[in-house]
Design goal:
It contains 18 helices and 22 strands. With about 600 residues, the protein is of the alpha+beta class. The strands form five sheets. A nine-stranded mixed β-sheet has the order 1-6-5-4-7-3-2-8-9. Strands 10-11-14-12-13 form a five-stranded mixed β-sheet, with helices on both faces. The protein has a three-stranded parallel β-sheet with strand order 18-17-19. It starts with a strand and ends with a helix. The structure holds adenosine-5'-triphosphate. The site of adenosine-5'-triphosphate has 18 residues, from helix 2 and helix 3.
Amino acid sequence: MNSTIQEKGQISIHTENIFPIIKKFLYSDHEIFLRELVSNAVDASQKLKKLAGFGEFNGELGEQKVTVTLNEEAKTITVSDRGIGMTAEEIKKYINQIAFSGASEFLEKYKDKLDEKGAIIGHFGLGFYSAFMVAQQVEIVTKSYREGSEAARWICDGSTEFEITQAERDEHGTDVILHIAPDSEEFLDKNRLRAILEKYGRFLPIPIEFDGTTINNTAPIWTKSPSELTDEDYQNFYKELYPMSEEPLFWIHLNVDYPFNLTGVLYFPRLKNDFQIRREKIQLYSRQVFITDEVKDIVPDFLMMLHGVIDSPDIPLNVSRSFLQADSNVKKINGYITRKVADKLSEIFRNDRAGFEQKFDDIGLFVKYGIISDDKFYEKAKDFCLVKTVDGKYFTFEEFTEAVKENQTDKNGTAVWLYTNDRQKQDGFIDSAKKRGYEVLLFDTVIDSHFINTLEYKLEKTSLKRVDSDTFDKLIDKGLNNESVLSEDDRNNLKTLFEEVLDNKTASVSVEAMPTDELPVIITLPEFFRRMKDMSALSGERSMFGPMPDSYNVAVNANHPLADRILKIGDAGEQKVLIKQSLDLAKLAQGMLSGSDLTAFIRRTVETL
Ligand SMILES: Nc1ncnc2c1ncn2[C@@H]1O[C@H](COP(=O)(O)OP(=O)(O)OP(=O)(O)O)[C@@H](O)[C@H]1O
């Protein structure tokens, strides 16, 4: 080995010493040094393969792979490739100038954001110099692929001074040797290194060898053409990504190269009702290098319920997250993915309606979330989004509008869609609705209260009412008033009697002429207030609707024989008991009776047996 110093020099950069800043800046993410060095090694290998392909390199290509070696005793980590290598001149140009200026430019640009942890996607742009986050000295031993090149060694200890000497090396390629600093010895651990390599490099296009094994799949399915792939390939890849998950429902292969470059495979997981815990499963890659699985701001919120991989070199990685949302490529990418997802769902809907219905319980949450949050998605989804009745029948919006037009249009020409959010609790109300031939929809997922609002806003002349929000004649008010068998005086009397027993200022009492086969008293929860309450409960906010009192209506059926009996009963005590009993029955039907009220009700009922 020739150790005569050929050149010592000073790297000219503006920042006096950028390394402490690098350390501070990337404090939480030191491990990315390995991603940067391995990516450089992969790039160098691919460049040589390309040159050989063009006929510009006729030497021995050798097995193109990148090897990572850990030497715990010497406290070094070495990244080796058999790529294009560098001449001493190229080291000066690429490492001393480009890499250094790249690093200082990067820091210059983002130093205002030093405290904003994770502000920059994947901390891209730092490249080779990220080695100094963990190394006290970095050594490069390299030989260019060009014929007659001499090997060179570059050493730098993290100051702006470097040294270049001649070196011994038979084959073209580069070794980057990191002499790990005392405060970074955590990286001198085999398992830790393997974990980092698997995280960032599991789909790199050149084999990465570590500790005798290859850690990566060099040709993940998103880099292939859909025509080469079978369903099994997609399913296997899903298992590779998420070994613990259930099988996906279906998938979309993304592949576009104009006006931006993007490939990927997105999977529809079985979501059921738990969309919160399944978020952040999409992995973002840039040319097969893992960047992040926090794709918020890159992918529309509702699409984050999907799983899979997106690979795009056109997503700017060295900008802060707030910039990202405004980036025109990111906007276009969002639009493209949304469109592809909607098209896929539409295709399944058209080609296999039965299969689509079967899957809808799993994807309904996703489709509804999309409809709520994205107008463009709504424009497509309105034709395939389904609503389900309590009898298990599925309808599109248009089909349902048509199905209920005849029987569920009120006197103002508004179609009324009835729904339940709890078929057990609202069983009596559902039953009454069905007796009248009404269809009752089932809206019992976490986002249905938002979905209902969106539907009402989007659909023309349609209102949605929960089955227990009004008495049946008013729920769909067709303007056909039942005759009351009671006089007006009797009705007023009855109202006062009930108000006295009820003794609740937030509830209102009305006496209505209902069919005799309806219950004597019905408690309804007005749609508007109930919805406000539901929404504020869902958002968890203490909004202006904060802890709202239960507002409900008590409707006394004037035509029920009990009404007449109550009025005619001589004994005031007995009258009170009868009113109390009928009120409690109505509360019971609404699930509103509990605690001491329920106990008292049971005692009273037992006494009458
Ligand atoms: N293993 C290597 N073999 C050959 N050349 C290399 C190798 N590593 C680095 N280089 C050269 O050094 C240059 C600077 O590397 P650096 O990682 O700082 O930036 P980059 O790879 O160009 O960009 P990025 O910021 O995306 O990493 C590279 O462009 C390349 O020319």
